[in-house]
UniProtKB/TrEMBL annotation:
InterPro entries noted in UniProt: Aminoglycoside_PTrfase (IPR002575), Kinase-like_dom_sf (IPR011009)
Keyword Transferase belongs to the record: yes
GO MF, any single term: transferase activity
Lineage: Bacteria, Candidatus Eiseniibacteriota
Superkingdom, taxonomy of origin: Bacteria
Keyword Phosphoprotein annotated: no
Species this chain originates from: Eiseniibacteriota bacterium
Record protein name field: Aminoglycoside phosphotransferase family protein
Ranges for domain Aminoglycoside phosphotransferase: 75-273
Keywords: Transferase
């Protein structure tokens, strides 16, 4: 049902864009900026009859959909005279303001990234009133299933090296922003989420609060980190592998911050798999990733702080898991996934 709603949204946007964006689906995209039009008669004169517009409508495919969160769509535009089709990615954000911010970020980073051999999508058009950002489609296979399914340890270690090298390049990009993310930012969000669960899962909320306080106390004693550009959600799901190169997508949470945020976020995803599968192999992969990053950018000294972010993200995931499946927690109790994730967070904090 949710996917059908997302597909209907994508088709609606395609029809609307076709009528109102003066040929946004043609192969020659205009410069990025808010989409506007002078008058309905002018638009209709340029895009032709309704039948002609219908023939130019793209095929829509839902790539990801999160209720009340985001929707990622792929539009496949057939080229005239049997040429190769053009693929465009459309991402619907919670607000038009966020769509514009992400587009501006990509516009700043994209030329720099190319100089570093880094692939990020080029923004094409923002339709602010719908929160829609249109981007070029970058090729590649998502790293997440590769990490989860590959059995060869050496191949996995190579993938960790590629991911670490990609993150190092990201952290070298020049970027200015008023939005600065820190450990305190994440802890405040975590305490707020735990507070909302005190009435329905008091023990879980208390355990989470205790861990967050410990993380905060340790963080207060750690050295001040140098600020750099951060992705804000760096994980295998945001990386696409193509012919030995990695492309990075999803810059919704990017800004300035401690580079250990990105390193810890990536490691947290691996620890999460380790908990789900009861497999130490993925914990070792997380260690390999940290070693590869540290070897390439030792001056950041992220190893001194990464355990704080790793533990904080595990606590966040535990609380989020409870919110999504509270009945599973009630049935499994101490063996439930939220509890196991909190235990993993405590172990990472103690084993720093």
């Amino acid at each position: 049902m949710e996917e059908r709603a997302a597909l209907q949204l994508g088709q609606h946007l395609a029809r609307s864009c076709s009528c109102r964006s003066l040929g946004v689906w043609s192969s020659s995209f205009q410069e990025i900026g808010p989409c506007g039009a002078t008058s309905e008669s002018d638009i209709l004169a340029q895009v032709g009859t309704e039948a002609e517009r219908a023939r130019r409508l793209p095929t829509v495919e839902v790539l990801r959909y999160k209720l009340h969160g985001r929707c990622v769509l792929r539009y496949i535009v057939e080229a005239p005279a049997g040429g190769a089709p053009t693929e465009v990615i459309g991402k619907v954000h919670k607000s038009g303001t966020l769509a514009v911010q992400v587009a501006q970020t990509l516009s700043i980073l994209q030329p720099q990234a190319a100089a570093y051999g880094l692939i990020i999508p080029k923004p094409l058009r923002v339709i602010e009133e719908w929160g829609l950002l249109l981007m070029e489609r970058v090729s590649g296979i998502a790293l997440k299933p590769i990490v989860e399914q590959t059995k060869d340890p050496q191949q996995l270690k190579t993938v960790m090296g590629l991911a670490a090298a990609t993150l190092v390049r990201l952290h070298c990009l020049r970027f200015e922003s008023q939005k600065v993310r820190s450990l305190q930012t994440w802890l405040e969000k975590g305490h707020g989420k735990a507070a909302s669960l005190h009435l329905v899962a008091p023990l879980l909320a208390q355990q989470a609060d205790t861990l967050l306080r410990q993380i905060g106390q340790l963080g207060a004693r750690s050295a001040v980190a140098p600020l750099s550009f951060i992705h804000g959600g760096f994980s295998p799901a945001q990386l696409l592998l193509e012919k030995g190169q990695i492309a990075v997508v999803d810059f919704d949470s990017s800004g300035l911050g401690d580079p250990a945020i990105d390193v810890g976020h990536f490691m947290e995803r691996l620890h999460q798999i380790a908990v789900n599968r009861a497999s130490n192999a993925f914990r070792q992969l997380a260690t390999d990733f940290l070693s590869e990053y540290q070897a390439r950018l030792p001056e950041q000294r992220v190893a001194e702080r990464v355990h704080l972010f790793l533990s904080a993200f595990l606590v966040r995931t535990a609380l989020h898991t409870f919110e999504r499946r509270p009945y599973a927690y009630g049935q499994a109790g101490p063996d439930s996934l939220p509890v196991l994730l909190l235990q993993e967070a405590a172990a990472c904090l103690a084993g720093r």
